[in-house]
Structure formats: structure tokens, C-alpha cells
Amino acid sequence: MKLNKLTIAITLIAGSSIFAAVAFNGSQMEPVKKAPESTLSSHVQPEPSNVSPESGDLPSSQSQIHTKEQGSKTEQASEKEALSKLPQVSIINVTSGEYQAEVVGHGEVKSRNELMFSAEVSGRVESVSSLFETGQVVNKGDVIARIDDTSYLQAVSLAKSNVAQAKLNLLEEQRQGEQAKSEWEHSGLSGEPDSPLVLRKPQLAQVTAALENAQLELKKARQDLEKTQVKAPFDALVVTRDIQPGSYVQPGTQVATLYSIDEVEVTVPLSESQWKNLPSLDNQQLQSTSWPVTLESSDGAHQWQGNVERVEQHLSQDTRQRSLIVVVENPLEQVDDLYPGMFVKTVISGKALDQLWQLPASALSQQGDVWVVNSQGLLAKSSAQAQFEINGLIYIDPNSLDFDLNTSTKAVVHVVKRPLSSFQVGMKVMAKVEG
């Protein structure tokens, strides 16, 4: 009986051990079974993306085409990304054309006549005219000052007396000469007398000359009397007044500084390169040809119209340049008065020039270079000099540039609008056209 109970206990313990072992093995085997399912699922999941649910699996040739398209797109994206990393420059498309040249110069406005007006007789200044003030305009013949004329009235009176006496002497000598001739004729002598004194010819010549001299003295005395009234020699602007009532003047004493107001002149010195842009007109041709010029004030607020009157035929010793003379008529009757002494800019009409580039002034670098972008997207430069400039635009002869773009004169050239100091020849850039 005891043996049976022991046997039963051992049997139960063994069974429990077996059951525990089976349970443990079952729990370890379950993840192993699930792992292949997860691996398979992740491996075959992308396949449906290449398969249309309607058409089924793609043929192998179409799969290759699809792969090439994906590669091309990738290359384009890479190229686009590379271009985006290149420096961007603004360019303008330029072609050669014909343009009317304009030459810009500068000069000072001066009156045609600038006179240091002086007294011609001596005496005390009795009075001055109310118009004889700086800034006033006086007309030709206006009396601007009066000098004491007492001594000059006396001189005129004396000259008149001398003339009368000379006339009397002439009449007496003429009578004596006639009497001498009559006596010679009644003397019975033939021919001419041995001496001209017989007929009083030298005496007659002497009194005749004395009369002429007396008449000239009277004329001078009257002129001196007239000059005691100081008159404006032309329509003039009074710049300075150098006498006062009570001043004593002598011949040569400065009375005033006068500027004529009928015309003003501007002398414009030009370089040799500027003269090349102007028509070849000499002074004789300018007498019958109008050559317009626009004058501007230094601040650009006012303008006047003038004409080239003449060109100088020599070089200035100071500037080594040749000048042309611009004339403006009635400067003080303009809408905006043009005053002598003003400094003005002159814009002179030139001749038509062909085969030029029109560029903004910003296209010329501080070093005097023009930069272009060639067909390969690479930068190139050349030193350049503007033929002329108008309103912020410069005009350049492309034939004078150093680089060869291998293009005709009518071809479009990509010029950099605003070159930078960091630019280098051969640098690859991405060009962007700017209006």
C-alpha cells in the first residue's frame, strides 16, 4: 500500500515536469513562426507599387524605360541643383545700332563785351544817375554821371574865337593875294614871278592851315565838353560803380564795370575724342548753318537754347584743348535769366554714328571694363571707352573691344548690367535677363 502511494506521487511529479516542458517549448516556438511572416511582408510590399491594379505586372522593356526616365529626372534635378548654386548675374541683350552723338562740355557764361569803363576827361563828379547802380541795366547813350564842365565850356568858347580869327586872317590874306596878282599883271612883266612870295601863296597856305587847326580845336573842345556827360557805350549791366558824387577823375580813371546784355558767350573746351563726334564745320560755314546747343544750369533745373557761333583754330596753352564758342541772345529776357558768371553744362548735337552699343552707365565697371556672358555661360571682359554719354546711357564701339565673341554686328550679346569686383574671367555664372 505504501509502495503504491509512492509510485503514484512519482508519476504525478514526472507528468507535471513533462507538461511544464511542453508549455515552455510552445511559448518559444511561437515567435519563430511569426518572424518569417513579418520578413515576407516587408520584402514583397514594394511590388504592388510597380503594378497597376488594372493592367497587372509590367513587361520587362517597359520597366527598363521607366527606370531610364527616373534616371533622367534625377540627372535633371542634379543639374538644376548645380545651376542654382552658380552666381547669378543680371544681363541685358545688346545689338549694334546707329545713334545720334551728343557731346557734353562745360563752360562759364561771359558777356560778349566786358568793359572796364573809364573817364576821358578830368574834373569833379557833379552827380550820378539813379540807374547807375550795380545790378541795374542802362541803355546805350544814357547819362550815368556828370563831370563839372565849366572849364570845357570855356575851352569851346576860346576855340570858337580862334576859328573866327582864323577865318578873318584867311579873308585878309585872300584879298592881299588878289591885290598882289593884280599888281604883277599891271607891272608889264611877263611870265611868273621868281618867288611865290610875290603873289603871297605861302601866306595864303599858312592862314588856311591855321583855320583848319582852329576848327579841329573847336571840334575837340566840343567833344571834351560832351564827355563831361558820362554815357553808357552800349546796352549794359552795371557790375561795379567806382565813382561817387564829388570824386575827382582824370582820363583813364575807372568809372564802372559794364557787361553787354545783347549776347552772352560760353567757351567750351573739348578733347580730341569729343571733336571726332562733331560735324566738321568751319567758321565760314557756321555763318549760314545753325548748330544748336542746349545749356543747363549746374543743378539741372534750368535750360537755355543757343548756337555755335564759331570754333577756335588754336589749342589753349593751359588745357591743350580746342574750344568752340556758344552764343545765347538776350540772356536777361529768357524765361529763366542767364547771368554772366554762371557755370553751365552744354549738350552739343553731334553726328550720327553707326555700329555702337547702347549700355547703361552701370555696365562699365570702376576699372573701365565691360563684362559679357558667352554662349557657354562663362564671363569675359574687355577694357572699353565710351564714345559719348546721354542721360545715364553710354555708347561703346564694339569693334574696339579686346575679346572676340564670334558674332556678327547684328547678333545679340549678353552684357552684364552691374559687374562686381569679384568677377573673374572664365567664371561660370547663371545669367538672368533684366529689362
UniProtKB/TrEMBL annotation:
Keyword Signal: yes
Composition bias, Polar residues: 38-65
NCBIfam families for this protein: RND_mfp
Source organism (scientific name): Vibrio gallaecicus
UniProt name for this protein: Efflux RND transporter periplasmic adaptor subunit
UniProt keyword list: Signal
Family: Belongs to the membrane fusion protein (MFP) (TC 8.A.1) family.
Signal peptide region: 1-20
Biased composition, class Basic and acidic residues, residue ranges: 66-80, 177-186
